[in-house]
């Protein structure tokens, strides 16, 4: 199994919206990808909660059966469609994939 964790820190304002609105839009877009390919075991997009310490604004925690399933997800048109918006609104991105 492969775990795939991605964190995004967002710009204060981008694409005509503030950080909170863009975070909510990112979550919605990610949620739409939860079942785009076989081999997705877990898929959870989360927006940082007000009042709780957070250094990033949006996190994706996902699990895949194997690297082939992760690759299929990453190359899926639904996932590829996220990249322009995510790139425009993000200040920073961190990612870690690891096998268990």
UniProtKB/TrEMBL annotation:
SMART domains annotated for this entry?
A: Dabb
Report the PROSITE patterns cross-referenced here.
Answer: S_R_A_B_BARREL
Gene3D superfamilies attached here? 3.30.70.100
- Which InterPro entries does the UniProt entry name for this protein? Dabb, Dimeric_a/b-barrel
Domain of life according to the entry: Bacteria
Pfam families of this UniProt entry? Dabb
Pinpoint the Stress-response A/B barrel domain residues: 2-98
What is the name attached to this protein's record? Answer: Dabb family protein
Organism field: Rugamonas apoptosis
- Organism phylogeny: Bacteria, Pseudomonadati, Pseudomonadota, Betaproteobacteria, Burkholderiales
């Amino acid at each position: 199994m492969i775990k795939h964790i991605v964190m995004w820190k967002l710009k204060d304002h981008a694409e005509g919206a503030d950080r909170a609105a863009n975070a909510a839009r990112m979550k919605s877009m990610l949620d739409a990808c939860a079942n785009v390919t076989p081999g997705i075991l877990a898929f959870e997009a989360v927006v940082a909660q007000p009042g709780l310490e957070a250094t990033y604004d949006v996190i994706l925690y996902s699990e895949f059966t194997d690297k082939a399933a992760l690759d299929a997800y990453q190359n899926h048109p639904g996932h590829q469609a996220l990249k322009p918006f995510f790139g425009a609104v993000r200040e920073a991105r961190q990612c870690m994939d690891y096998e268990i």
